[in-house]
């Protein structure tokens, strides 16, 4: 009797079929091409993803922690700038509005107006849902987390949810934020907005990297790319041509550095490599040599009531510009003036102050959070091939380090 026909594939073909099935189920893990991120290191991300796929335990634990945060982020509401009545009119508008964080109601005035400045003391009202800064921060954090989770797992649920946030904020004509900051960092009773509010859209820099990760996903579309680039094109135009933008560009402290960082990243994101390279190329003479002394200190940041915070905050902007320079063939990491002013000198000076127990310029700053600046020193160790920069992280507690995946490096 003839036996029923069975199909037995040779082992290599079985293996090929399994790999193809895995690639179909996990598209983010199928390729070895580098992601087109701007600030996050494409090489570090790609290497970490390959290690995760190879079941490396260290990277696996970091990815597991990331996906746990992503599962929580999946529940975050999509909350773009709400429609509000236009000041002085009846038309509804989706203009971004925020409160200048160091301004408080005047206790001597019955209605608290005009607000008065208390430098270094953050008014919690600025982060309330009466204004948009909290919404912007939550959106950026959520999108970045979900995009990274998609990149490392290939789970399209993460990509779809991240895309929903980006579409609502920037792509959907019915809900998108107006691409200007005319009402950012308002001072009630004094004026409608302030040029210093421009620093708040530095929060959009990681969103650009997140979208670069999302673009190969099934959720993201060419229409999304076109509309998002249009939004950033309009916002760049406002930054470069508006009075607040020009004033912020002229700032001689972290506000000027972050202005340049935003323009460079947003330009490169939307494909204007020439503008990105121009801005990055001016960093040495326009920012480093005017803000960083030969000993690595930044006097304009040290004179603030929170010198450690502003020193690291400005250093972060410099590292963003260096990352853009790297994409454009410029080496800002190693740029130095004739008298030795450089980003590396600033890193060397700031490093010992990363830990909570090291006050800077006499200010203890007990509420200083080193977590956002961990990637700066991971990138420094990679760029300069010097593990001394990782030694600064050893002084941090394990809980702080666990909040930042090891594969995140500026």
TrEMBL record:
Quote the cellular component terms of the Gene Ontology held in the record. Answer: periplasmic space
Q: Write the signal peptide boundaries.
A: 1-30
Taxonomic superkingdom:
Bacteria
Among Pfam families, the record links this protein to: Alginate_lyase
Instruction: Kindly state which keywords UniProt assigns to this record, in alphabetical order.
Output: Lyase, Signal
- Alginate lyase domain residues are 90-355
Name the record gives this protein: Alginate lyase domain-containing protein
In terms of InterPro entries, this protein maps to: Alginate_lyase_dom, Chondroitin_lyas
What GO molecular function annotation could you give as one example from this UniProt entry? Answer: lyase activity
């Amino acid at each position: 009797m003839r036996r029923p026909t069975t199909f037995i594939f040779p082992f290599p073909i079985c293996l090929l079929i399994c790999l193809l099935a895995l690639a179909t189920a996990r598209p983010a893990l199928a390729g070895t091409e580098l992601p087109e991120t701007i600030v996050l290191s494409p090489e570090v991300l790609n290497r970490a993803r390959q290690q995760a796929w190879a079941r490396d335990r260290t990277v696996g634990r970091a990815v597991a922690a990331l996906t746990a945060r992503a599962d929580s982020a999946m529940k975050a509401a999509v909350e773009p700038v709400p429609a509000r009545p236009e000041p002085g009119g009846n038309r509804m508008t989706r203009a971004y509005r925020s409160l200048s964080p160091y301004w408080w109601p005047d206790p001597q005035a019955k209605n608290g107006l005009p607000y008065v400045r208390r430098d270094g003391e953050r008014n919690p009202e600025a982060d309330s849902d009466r204004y948009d800064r909290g919404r912007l921060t939550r959106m950026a954090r959520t999108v970045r987390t979900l995009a990274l989770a998609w990149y490392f797992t290939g789970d399209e649920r993460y990509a779809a949810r991240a895309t929903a946030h980006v579409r609502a904020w920037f792509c959907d004509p019915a809900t998108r934020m107006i691409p200007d900051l005319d009402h950012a960092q308002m001072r009630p009773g004094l004026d409608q907005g302030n040029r210093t509010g421009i620093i708040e859209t530095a929060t959009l820099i990681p969103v650009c990297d997140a979208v670069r990760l999302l673009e190969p996903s099934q959720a993201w579309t060419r229409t999304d790319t076109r509309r998002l680039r249009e939004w950033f094109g309009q916002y760049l135009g406002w930054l470069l041509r508006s009075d607040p933008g020009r004033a912020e560009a002229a700032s001689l402290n972290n506000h000027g550095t972050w202005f340049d960082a935003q323009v460079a990243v947003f330009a490169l994101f939307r494909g204007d490599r020439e503008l990105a390279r121009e801005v990055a190329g001016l960093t040495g003479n326009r920012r480093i040599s005017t803000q960083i002394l030969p000993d690595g200190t930044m006097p304009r940041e040290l004179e603030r009531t929170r010198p450690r915070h502003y020193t690291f905050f400005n250093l972060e902007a410099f590292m963003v510009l260096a990352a853009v320079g790297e994409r454009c063939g410029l080496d800002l990491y190693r740029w130095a003036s004739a008298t030795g002013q450089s980003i590396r000198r600033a890193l060397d000076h700031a490093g010992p102050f990363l830990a909570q127990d090291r006050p800077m310029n006499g200010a203890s700053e007990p509420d200083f959070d080193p977590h956002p600046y961990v990637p700066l020193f991971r990138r420094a160790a990679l760029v300069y091939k010097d593990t001394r920069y990782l030694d600064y992280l050893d002084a941090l507690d394990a809980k702080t380090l666990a909040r930042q995946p090891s594969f995140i490096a500026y």
